[in-house]
Amino acid sequence: MKKFDVRRKRLSPVLKKILLVMKLTTFILMISMLHVSATVYSQATKLSLNLREVTIKEVLQEIESMSKFRFIYQNEEVDLNKKINASFKNEVIENILNKIFEGENIDYSITATSLILIKPDLKTGRSRQWRDNETYQPKMISGSVTDSGGQPLPGVTVVVKGTTQGTVTNSDGEYSLPNVSGNDVLVFSFVGMVTEEFSCPEGNVLNVTLQPDDLQVEEVVVTALGLKRQEKSLGYGVSKVGEEEISSASGASVLNSIQGKVAGLEMNSSQGGLGSSNRVVLRGNSSITGNNQPLYIVDGVPINNSTIEESVGVWDRKDFGSSAMDINPDDIESITVLKGPNAAALYGSRAQNGAIVITTKSKGAKDGIGVEFSTTNMFDMITEQSLPKFQNQYGQGRYVNNVATYDLINGSTSWGPKMEGQTFESWSGFQDNLKYAPHPDNVKDFFETGLRTTNTLSFSKSGANGFTRVSYTNLYAKGTLPNNDQNRHNLFIKSQVDLAQWLRLDAKANFITQRIDGGTWLGEATSNTIYGLFMLPRNVDLNELKKFNYQKTPNDPFTGTQMNPYWTTDYDELINKKNRFLGYAKLDFDISSKFSGFVRAGTDYSNHIVEERYNRGHKQLSTGRWIMNQYNTIETNLDALFTYSQRFVDLSMNANIGGNIRYEYSDKSFNQGDEVINEGFWNVQSFLTKSASYNYYKKQVNSLYGTINLGYRDYLYFDASFRNDWSSTLPKDNRSYFYPAFSLAFLANELINTEKINLLKLRLGYAKVGNDTDPYRLATTFGINPLINHNGIPLMDVAEIPGVRDLKPELTTSIESGVELKAFQNRLLLDFNYYWQSTENQILETPVSPATGYKAKLINAGEVRNSGIEIALGGVPVRGNGLEWETTFTFAKNTTEIVELSEGIENQVLSNLENLAGGIQIVAETGKNGYGKIFGKPLKVNGQYQLTTQNTFRTGVDPVELGNFNPDAVIGWLNNFSYKRFSLKFLVSGKIGGDILNATKAELSDAGVTKNTLDYREGGIVVEGVDSQGNPITANMNAQNYWAGLADYGEPWVVDATNISLKEASLAYTFKMSPNAFIRSVRFSVNAYNLLFLYRDKEARDIDPNQTWGVGNGQGYSLYNMPSASSYGFALNVKF
């Protein structure tokens, strides 16, 4: 049960443990950095092999898999198909190679981390590097190596054929190779590219373009538990977004970098100002009342992605951001999206909705010391496309009868007469008279030009024994709302060091501190700046609003619940502060070539303080109020994994077994003061009335899991995994739950003798995942309620929902199949996926009789099924002459079916908006497409308007289904054009189908401020319909009554949410640098984000259908959301 205590707590034992973990992690990192100095790797490394009847090539591959050695050779010069026996124990590499090539007349040369094998000159018995000086005329050859699109290729090996003499291109793709004779041949080789040979040029410059070797499909992706796997061996669908795509997306958070690029991913953004949350859903909503967002993993360690939303009912809500947005995009190397239970089952219950796996950068682009600086500067602007369409003909006032007689009265509506420059009493009291004239830009001019500037400086050091990377990032942002600012500091340290031949230490520490001032509440909250701004009568001048001490007059425009928007930005202070630590320490051990493993401890700790300051004079809190909520959250993961690998002639096997202990702790302290005594001193002692509370929860999940991966002749792969969880939040008899997963991948291209098909993979998977519940739901709880007291002493009250002792875990079963094709040298790419999944034993709240003293009870019931397809179609339509066009189109369609709820219940309310548009409910209802239905009052019944004899619309109409907030399909189209050193990218993303309640337009139409209300202003309208008995009736309405009547119905405001937008665009240029220059690389780009809508339904052109109202399950409506901004700016990256 939840614990409440009004006393202030000292630092808890849990927080002391957190501080200890942070200190230990920092100490380990410092020790790691001291050990990064290079040693002679070949002498320090001892290997053990036990291979029989294998080729020399297989032996070399085994050595590469268990060490840092890499082999460079020419197939025609080195016979690698000879079969040998290789049995060695703790031998250095020189001894192993001498034995392998015994009698083969092979010479080799060893560098710190690689080998170059050559065949001696048969005539002299010596390698060519020892030829007589008479035929050797040395000179320096330099140049650059690029890909087919003209982009530089770093890390290309350049070798004089037949010798050990060579070099590697730098980060700008440039090289210099001394002592090359006129008769030499240079060999250029790079992973994923066709190896090319060129004769020594007559001059000193040789520029080379390498073409992709599309027969190589060995791309590696990070899968569950941080395990790296060859993508071709996976029997389930994954999507990967690389560093370049992440850096080119100049959105407000790292999540913006994957929007529109991953089939099956839907993202909406909350709009409460800087730092607001994003809602991400993979393959539809599977839980009715639980969390539907994926699990986030950073460097193999799960992190907390909770969202803090302060709310008082459905109307007063503030979004203080989700935790995944704290991750710095400049520190990310790649993002892998595991879309469903098949891919993410090993992560356990929280991954039933998939997982987003983030891998951070490790070392620099070269060995030794590297320095990198990057800056991104974006300007945010509110444009007309995101604002309501306001009318500018009629001002403040109302109708006084049905024949268009107007009155200038006290009120916030714009139903007065035409604005023709008449004079009227100033509503502010500062002037005797004002001109009754329109102010067409009184909304747009309120917003400011926002700024987001991000500066990152990183240092890296790499050597034979490890690496260290340290980066510091500062993000400063000024929002489009006045006094809305964000400042975030991010210190990132990551290090890896070889402690011994068989032992490696890997550690990371990420310190984040952030402060956000300002922002806005959501909905019809009095302090919602947008609510007060949009409702302004069309004759109100912004300059008058800035004079806060205006007097009350008969023409006061703020007679409703809204406030002067300048007051909410200047005198309602929202302060959002966060300190966070993410870190881990990991020991990897390689006992032998077959046995390896790791042990790891990771933690995610955050201290989050949300402070609200309401000055004296607030419309609802006239005597002032101060609120401080402080949240401490900690998640600690202790895990271990042991791996056994074995390769036979036709069969490869990899088995893992491991376990995890996950501990979660969270507490919240609440302090509130009312009736200010000492203005300007924001603490509880400055207020007459005080209240406080404290609550916390703890949770632990213990897990065991294992996998086995089998490969047959490199064309058939079978994976099996299991996991068993024991959750502290479930009753003893149901605490343990087991779930398996299986997948199969078949590479048909290995059996097809054609060069046109590079990869043709068929895959099939099955998985089952369990999910527990929140803490303290097994027993009925009591707590101290500061809002009720006896003689000033707070009383305890009972929870609204009684405990349930027989709760069971939710269970999700998933089946997935797909086809992946790469053809015509990767000029054509296709990835198709079909999935079906069912989530049973939903943990639901069902209403009970008020006579019980409770609001609802918990039950296990219901089944939700999701099925759909995902398609990624792409390729390279143009490649040649330095020009390349790479394109990818993604399409995903999901259908959600509510198979059943609890007995006797046909729907579950996700969001109840009883005072909006006559009463709106967002529900989950049994049947196909039953999740996310929008119910409200229809405008017509049986084709007839429902009227009264008082010339108004009848309100007593039963609600019906008006739409569904889920889109029919989600699409994305990513394009990348490159020409020599230029690159141009753009992303188009969109949603097809789905509906949204444009509640903003309904409210503004009631107030008469939007263009649509110009209809019927002069003369009114005659509406024909029926009365409550079905008898024909006619109603004569003026415009004000007509639009006010429509605003009380849901049907006119539920609109098509289909939209297609130009989401990203970037034009970049990479400067050519001298190979020996101090500056190794310079890249400059101009970027734009959220540019414009290419298509929106005409009834939704005053809102952004991609915005959400918080991150919960009750989506599908827009109510005074912060207008979305378009961003334009530039970025600069310099490497030294």
Quick structural summary:
It is a multi-pass membrane protein. The chain is mainly β and 1136 residues long. Helices cover 8% and strands 49% of the residues.
Can you characterise this structure?
With 1136 residues, the chain is mostly beta strands. The protein folds into 4 domains: 41-118, Phage tail protein beta-alpha-beta fold (3-Layer(bab) Sandwich); 139-209, Carboxypeptidase-like, regulatory domain (Immunoglobulin-like); 247-384 and 449-527 and 572-779 and 806-929 and 966-994 and 1057-1135, Beta Barrel (Maltoporin, Chain A), CATH 2.40.170; 394-446, no CATH class. The strands form 16 sheets. The protein has a 22-stranded antiparallel β-barrel. The two termini are 56 Å apart.
Helix content: under 10%
Largest sheet: 22 strands, antiparallel, barrel
The CATH homologous superfamily of the largest domain corresponds to: TonB-dependent receptor, beta-barrel domain
Q: Could you tell me the number of beta strands?
A: 67
The end-to-end span amounts to 56 Å
Task: Please mark out the parts with pLDDT under 50 across 5 or more consecutive residues, or reply none.
Answer: 1-11, 30-40, 120-136
**Helix segment tally:** 11
Name of the CATH architecture of the largest domain: Beta Barrel
> What structural class should be given to the helix and strand makeup?
mainly beta
- Domain module tally: 4
Kindly provide the name of the CATH class of the largest domain.
Mainly Beta
Rounded to the nearest angstrom, the radius of gyration is 33 Å
Percent of residues in β-strands: over 45%
Mean pLDDT: 83
Instruction: Using the coordinates shown, work out and report the CATH topology of the largest domain.
Output: Maltoporin, Chain A
Q: What general outline do the C-alpha atoms trace?
A: globular
Subcellular location: Cell outer membrane
Organism: Mariniphaga sediminis
GO cellular component, one term: cell outer membrane
InterPro entries: Beta-barrel_TonB_sf, CarboxyPept-like_regulatory, Plug_dom, Plug_dom_sf, Secretin/TonB_short_N, TonB-dep_OMP_SusC/RagA, TonB-dep_OMP_SusC/RagA_CS, TonB-dep_rcpt-like
